[in-house]
Amino acid sequence: LVKRSRRMANSMNRNRRLLLLLCIFCVIALGLAHTCTAPEGNTSVDSKAKGMFPAFINFALRPLSRLSGCKAFRSVGRIFPNKFVQASSVRLRGGRDQPFSSLQASAAAATAAEPSMSTNPLVSLEMFPRYDLVSAEHVLPAMQQLIKDAEGSLEKLEAKLKENEYQMKCVEFLAEVEKLSDHVERSWGVVQHLKGVKDNEALRKSVEEAQPAVVQFNLKLMQNEALFNTFKAIKDSKEFSSLTPAQKRIVETSIRDAELSGVALKGEEKKHYNELQQELATLSTKFSNNVLDSTKAFSVRLEKKEDVAGLPASALALAAQSAKAKGDKEATPEEGPWVFTLDMPSYLAVQQHAKDRSLREKMYEQYITRASKEGLDNTPIINKILALRQETAKLLGKRHHADVSTASKMATYESAMKLLKDLRESSYSFAKKELQELQAFAKSQGFEGELMPWDTTYYAERQREALYSFNEEEVRPYFSLPRVLDGLFQLANRLFDIEVVPAEGNSAVWNKDVQLWQINRDGKVAAYFYLDPYSRPEEKRGGAWMDVCAGRSRVMSSEKDGVRLPIAHMVCNQSPPVGDKPSLMTFREVETLFHEFGHALQHMLTSENEGLVAGIRGVEWDAVETPSQFMENWCYDKATIDKLAVHYETGKKMPDELWQKIKAAKNFRSGSMMLRQLQFAVTDLELHSNFNPSAADQPGKTVHDLYREVAKTYQVTDPMPYDRFLCAFGHIFSGGYSAGYYSYKWAEVLSADCFGAFEEVGLENEAKVKETGRRFRDTILGLGGGREPLEVFKMFRGREPKPDALLRHSGLVAA
Fold first, then answer.
1. Is 805:757 a contact under the CB 8 Å cutoff?
2. Burial tier of 16 (Cβ tally within 10 Å: 0-12, 13-18, 19+)
3. Residue-wise over 88-119: b if at least 16 C-beta within 10 A, else e?
4. Are 353 and 310 in contact (CB under 8 A)?
């Protein structure tokens, strides 16, 4: 009886243990299911009704590195890894194993005693970040923990390198270097991405608190003498000659970038350099915040129909929608009231179509003076940024910041200025003639006096309508976002032999309109990208950009002999759906979408497995715009347009007559548009070379004075006395393009020449177009930063670049 009782007790204990194990298993299973399932409201919706496709992924570094905008972090984007992580895997719907983070398991173990850290989505980072779970309170503790872990790994690697007198096999060393900062950079990238697309005060405060530690960590990496000495030892070793081209380039550019980051500085100089970088990072963030806040601060509410005369139905619908959001619940497109803002879809509609000249002037003045008024004035921030950059350049032994910037680009300061001056010579006479013709046209329409900036856009649109018999509103119904995406993806299949489909399974996103897409190549998943298409001025930064969520990498793969797949973010600010209509795009918005997809393609179609130079990583800044600007050319290809320009209601293709008008208008006022970009680029280079805001020999001369001086040469009209464009020029003061805005024109020469290769074989010759497209994929898109961009260009084109195609495409070749 006793034995039987013991057996029954043992059996009951076994059953209890089995039951406990079963419960644990269920909890884990539910947890994994939750991880793989989008929160309620993020499932697929009808694209025709909503103008969108299924939702999914994410990203975090502008073409090369958006992050804080400080040079220290951008440099890390070139040398050190900046994306994903690996370890266990989770199976999404469809049975596909997806790698998670290798640091996930170790981070979880390290923080098991601290519940708040173990559940922090920035610490336990997944393949597709949990944007729905990340909040402001996660930022500081996560970054502190991740940096602490990374610094521990760095100390161990330093000790190993010193013990071996900086001798280590290149492959082993590059793997160690890539692993050092991957989790830190990717988690910080999540934070910076959310700040760009879902900004709020709490997140801003958290970023400001965490940013100094992030900057300091990256400076520590960039200035690490053990890493620097090992890179130099590899460069001087016999092994170097046997390395792959990508490995050689990593070694050489790492030495260069470390030197540009102050690795050779000693004592007080290094300390001062680091203090400058911290201050620059803070100023960059403040600059960006001021622009966003000043943009949000202004709106104009109109109630009378005569006040909105001339504005098209799409603009009135958007304005009524804005009015509803601000409390006018009964607002309608037909009866109002209407609210207009400085967000581009709203602002541009007023400048192009509003008959009320006083409204145009009011909106123009507010727009051109953003972030220039008391409380949000960026002028002192600009002066401080310029002074600190100049001081940094002197510490590095350079003439000025422009030399620091171009040291890691294709162009030198002198060659960049020469290109800009040459393009000015080719376009100035065209721009002057365009202004004369516009003035005469306005006079014929009853306008008296000299055209002002708020008149130019309005009458240019009327002139375009008169010359080509169409307006932007006429083409919108043919460019609904779902059809445009379908046509874009068909083009990608035609040129690059890839398939773009909605991603399987669900992934958490930061907004219900965000879509996740999957790229298949040769029957296998090759990459993913998020698309965040619509304007949200209350929380989303203006403009359009592509960022990196995860980069292709052999080292960071969770599978032996495998690679981690790249993931990208594409962010636009186009017109959102209104009512039951899908997003109806302007032709310029179509071009912008193609542009950002070009960036994403270079990131996603890379064949380079060395994570430090895969995709856009390691590509010189003035070459990184080549694929994006190349893709814009296809917006004028008839075969492409036939696929995407379909009326959203009738299903009919765009009439050929209308398409021919659009094509004929391609170079409308191209001379003026060329000069505008040249003015920005020259101003940027001048500010970072010959201008010093604190120089004693420039009493009273301001950055705005310099802007006006450049305009005298690079514009055919003078800016308004109150023009404060520079106060919102985020590209060069918070976006990473300092002394690099010329890159757009430099890369445009390359991109136009690349498209010229397709023109030469004949755009109607399908076999040759596909053959040339595969070559473009395997060189310009495929090789990433693993080879110098000029070498890559010559592999595709067979020669060095020429500007002829750019001038021809722009209509700036004299008859």
1. no
2. exposed
3. eebebeeeeebbbbbbbeebbebbeeeeebee
4. yes
What is the phi/psi pair of residue 55, to 5°?
-95, 155
596 is catalytic: yes
Using CA atoms, how far residue 657 sits from 455, 469, 478, 639, 663, in Å, is: 29, 10, 14, 15, 10
Name the pairing type of β-strands 515-521 and 499-502: antiparallel
Place of tokens 């067979």: 798
Question: Is 520 in contact with 534 (CB distance < 8 Å)?
Answer: no
pLDDT, residue 473, reads 85
**Average pLDDT, 10 consecutive residues per value, the chain (815 residues):** 44 46 37 31 26 22 29 32 26 26 33 60 89 94 96 97 96 96 93 95 95 92 95 97 97 95 94 95 94 94 96 94 94 96 94 97 98 94 96 96 96 96 95 97 96 97 92 91 97 98 85 95 95 92 92 89 92 90 94 97 96 94 94 95 95 94 92 97 97 66 94 96 96 92 95 97 96 98 95 96 93 73
CA atoms of 391 and 383, how far apart (whole Å): 12
Residue 680, CB half-sphere, CA atoms under 13 Å: how many? 23
Confidence at residue 22, expressed as pLDDT on a 0 to 100 scale: 40
Distance CA 603, CA 617 (A): 8
Let me know: does 541 contact 196? Beta carbons within 8 Å.
Answer: yes
Q: Rounded to whole angstroms, how far apart are CA atoms 258 and 231? A: 10
Specify the 3-state DSSP secondary structure of 802.
Answer: coil
Res 698: pLDDT: 55
Strand partners, 546: 570
Q: Quick one: pLDDT at residue 127?
A: 85
Determine what percent of the chain falls in helix, strand and coil, rounding each to the nearest 5: 60, 10, 35
Please check whether residue 167 is in contact with residue 200, taking contact to mean a CB–CB distance below 8 angstroms.
no
* Contact (Cβ atoms closer than 8 angstroms) between residue 555 and residue 102: no
546 and 603 Cβ atoms separated by less than 8 Å: yes
Q: What is the pLDDT of residue 469?
A: 86
* Amino acid found at 758: F
Instruction: Give the model's pLDDT for residue 506.
Output: 65
Contact 366, 724 (CB under 8 A): no
Q: What is the DSSP string of 729-786?
A: -HHHHTSS-TTTTTHHHHHHHHHHHHHHHHHHH-TT-HHHHHHHHHHHIIIIITSGGG
* Active-site pick, 434, 472, 596, 686: 596
Residue 97, pLDDT score: 27
75-123 pLDDT per residue, tens: 333 333 332 222 222 222 222 222 223 323 333 333 333 446 778 999 9
CA 339 to chain centroid, in Å, comes to 29
Q: What is the pTM of this model?
A: 0.79
The three-class DSSP label of residue 209 is helix
User: Which has the closest alpha carbon to 780: 762, 760, 758?
Assistant: 758
Nearest-angstrom CA–CA distance, 779 and 782: 5
Cα torsion 445, 449, 452, 458 to 10°: value is: -10
Partners of 277 in the β-ladder? none
CA distances from 670 to 627, 804, 812 (A): 21, 15, 8
